[in-house]
């Protein structure tokens, strides 16, 4: 789930104690933290000051059984004489978040890194190590000091499936040794059922929560209702899962450029959630990648409002929950440890909200000029000025930059960063007023659910076992975007790689969100930039954008050739 976007987190902090996380609710909100994907990541404690999220997933332990941790700007210190991260600030924030009734779990896996077990004995030994380093065991090096996590998440995006059930069973035996605290197991499979890497594990080990990634796939939220397949996962929960009370979450991108495909706005996500809630009792809530994305775009506020309006457990505004149909059966060890935040937004205001869910509207129209930092504005306005987004705070514009390659566009009254996909890149617009230069929003988006656009993942010709898939993205007029997914079936590949394939007749490639593309007739080669890649990777997921003539078609997967040093 390694995804990028930009905007600015603007949630004001509110105080208050809370009840413990209740896994039985259908209105929980989980979000990943640690990869700084919006490039404005706050401290963990900052996100725990209010009642927005119920559970935080720390991302990632992207190396195991030889442990590698990566939390981007949240932790960069190591134990003396070791490469293992030592994160005392995160440790304090974990305790603070738990004191606010939130659960904090650690995600193993991700797209980058190198991980996997050689077999059951390897996995069992690592379960003992994990218990000692992150839970109630003892170790001379504990990355989060005396903080005790609430569980483990498996986000396995490549490699072998060996050992994971044995790992869970062994760690579960350790969980049982501490009756003072409720511990959890979670997983984050892709939406195609069964998941390519976790399918066997999901059927043979105990899980409390499953965060299904309904993005970067044909069955994503953007394919609702035709190919959106929550029903498959509900059926798995009730017929295949060892835990018949397992909760399935709707996994969503936190902003338009948080995923290559699958983003829907707050109003659409609310509608999907309400539909799922009315049909499937396995629903546990919503998950987003990631917290910096969702807080920045404002969709986090929409999600919280939707969950509180229709779910079984509601927030009181300070972090506590009340349940109309169930009560938590777990007891959580109390703590009085708190932490002070290490960073705050440059202003204090309410969160950005979408025009479809916000109860506040701009109080006046905007003067006929592009939003510029420091210039006057009014109300809760938002705006765009090319690659910069703007938020009105205290009567003045505050501006920030979109992530490289993305531009600011208005969606109703909400400013958001997105790939251009053929739209003008000099948009000048504000909420509550007209665009000040011509905008070309999508108005003829075709359905991506035609049978011939169903992806056909298969092994690529490669110097290592690799799985390749093309997924249809936005298709408008003669413009298309396609998600390319490359995943290893065994060992990690390096950051120096190339990928070649044949385009269907009449198609071109104009840009790629990863590496550089060259084209010779219909033959396309995408070469990575090793300086911007991780040293080891389990997957490479990116988007290509181009034009087509006639009817759009996906490239033939059997033409794909992947190589890595």
Describe this structure in words.
By secondary structure, the protein is an alpha/beta fold. The protein has nine helices and 30 strands. It has helices at residues 44-47, 88-99, 120-134, 164-176, 199-204, 230-239, 266-279, 291-297, 299-310, and strands at residues 28-33, 55-64, 68-69, 103-110, 114-115, 151-156, 184-187, 209-213, 247-253, 283-289, 313-315, 321-323, 382-385, 388-393, 396-401, 407-411, 414-418, 428-430, 458-459, 461-462, 466-476, 479-488, 493-494, 497-502, 511-512, 516-520, 523-527, 536-537, 539-547, 561-564. Helix 3 (120-134) packs parallel to helix 4 (164-176) and helix 7 (266-279) packs parallel to helix 9. The longest helix is centred in the N-terminal third of the chain and has 15 residues, at 120-134. Residues 1-17, 324-368 and 433-449 have low confidence and may be disordered.
Mean pLDDT across residues: 83
Strand order of the largest sheet: 1-2-4-6-7-8-9-10
In what range is the share of β-strand residues?
A: 25-35%
Number of strands: 30
Backbone shape: globular
| Overall helicity | 10-25%
Radius of gyration: 23 Å
**Low-confidence regions:** 1-17, 324-368, 433-449
Number of helices: 9
Give the end-to-end Cα distance, rounded to a whole number of Å. 23 Å
Structural class: alpha/beta
Counting copies of identical and different chains, the oligomeric state is: single chain
Biggest sheet overview = 8 strands, parallel, barrel
């Amino acid at each position: 789930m390694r995804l990028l976007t930009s905007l600015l987190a603007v949630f004001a902090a509110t105080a208050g104690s809370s009840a413990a996380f209740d896994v039985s609710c259908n209105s929980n909100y989980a979000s990943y933290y640690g990869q700084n994907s919006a490039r404005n990541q706050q401290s963990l404690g900052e996100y725990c000051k209010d009642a927005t999220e119920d559970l935080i997933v720390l991302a990632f332990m992207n190396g195991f059984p030889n442990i590698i941790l990566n939390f981007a700007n949240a932790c960069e210190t190591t134990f003396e004489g070791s490469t293992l991260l030592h994160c005392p600030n995160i440790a304090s924030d974990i305790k603070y978040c738990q004191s606010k009734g939130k659960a904090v779990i650690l995600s193993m896996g991700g797209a980058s890194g190198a991980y996997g077990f050689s077999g059951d004995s390897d996995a069992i030994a690592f379960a003992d190590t994990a218990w000692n380093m992150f839970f109630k065991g003892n170790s001379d090096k504990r990355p989060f000091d005396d903080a005790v996590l609430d569980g483990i998440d498996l986000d396995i995006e490549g490699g072998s499936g060996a050992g994971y059930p044995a790992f869970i069973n062994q760690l579960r035996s350790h969980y049982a040794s501490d009756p003072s605290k409720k511990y959890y197991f979670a997983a984050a499979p892709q939406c195609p059922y069964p998941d390519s890497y976790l399918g066997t594990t999901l059927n043979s080990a105990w899980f409390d929560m499953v965060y299904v990634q309904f993005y970067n796939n044909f069955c994503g939220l953007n394919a609702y209702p035709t190919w959106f397949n929550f029903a498959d996962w509900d059926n798995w929960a009730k017929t295949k899962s060892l835990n018949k009370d397992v909760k399935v979450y709707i996994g969503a991108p936190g902003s338009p450029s948080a995923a290559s495909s699958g983003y829907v706005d707050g109003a659409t996500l609310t509608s999907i959630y309400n539909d799922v809630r009315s049909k499937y009792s396995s629903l546990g809530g919503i998950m987003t990648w990631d917290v910096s994305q969702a807080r920045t775009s404002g969709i986090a506020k929409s999600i919280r409002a939707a969950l509180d309006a229709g779910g079984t457990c509601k927030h009181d505004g300070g972090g506590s929950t009340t349940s109309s149909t169930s009560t938590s059966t777990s007891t959580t060890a109390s703590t009085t440890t708190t932490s002070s935040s290490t960073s705050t937004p440059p202003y204090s205001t309410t969160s950005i909200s979408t025009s479809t869910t916000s109860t506040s509207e701009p109080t006046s129209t905007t003067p006929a000029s592009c939003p510029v930092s420091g210039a006057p504005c009014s109300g809760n306005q938002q705006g765009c000025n090319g690659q910069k987004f703007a938020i009105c705070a205290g009567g003045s514009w505050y501006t920030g930059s979109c992530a490289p390659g993305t531009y600011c566009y208005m969606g109703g009254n909400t400013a958001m960063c997105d790939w251009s996909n053929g739209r003008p890149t000099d948009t000048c617009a504000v909420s509550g007023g007209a665009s000040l230069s011509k905008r070309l929003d999508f108005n003829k988006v075709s359905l991506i659910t035609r049978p011939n656009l169903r992806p056909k993942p298969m092994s690529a010709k490669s110097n290592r076992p690799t799985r390749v898939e093309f997924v249809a993205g936005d298709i408008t007029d003669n413009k298309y975007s396609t998600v390319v997914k490359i995943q290893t079936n065994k060992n990690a590949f390096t950051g120096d790689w190339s990928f070649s394939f044949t385009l269907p007749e009449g198609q071109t490639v104009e840009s790629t969100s990863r590496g550089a593309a060259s084209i010779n007739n219909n033959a396309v080669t995408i070469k990575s930039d090793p300086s911007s890649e991780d040293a080891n990777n389990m997957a490479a997921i990116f988007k290509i954008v181009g034009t087509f003539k006639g009817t759009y078609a996906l490239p033939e997967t059997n033409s794909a050739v992947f190589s890595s040093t």
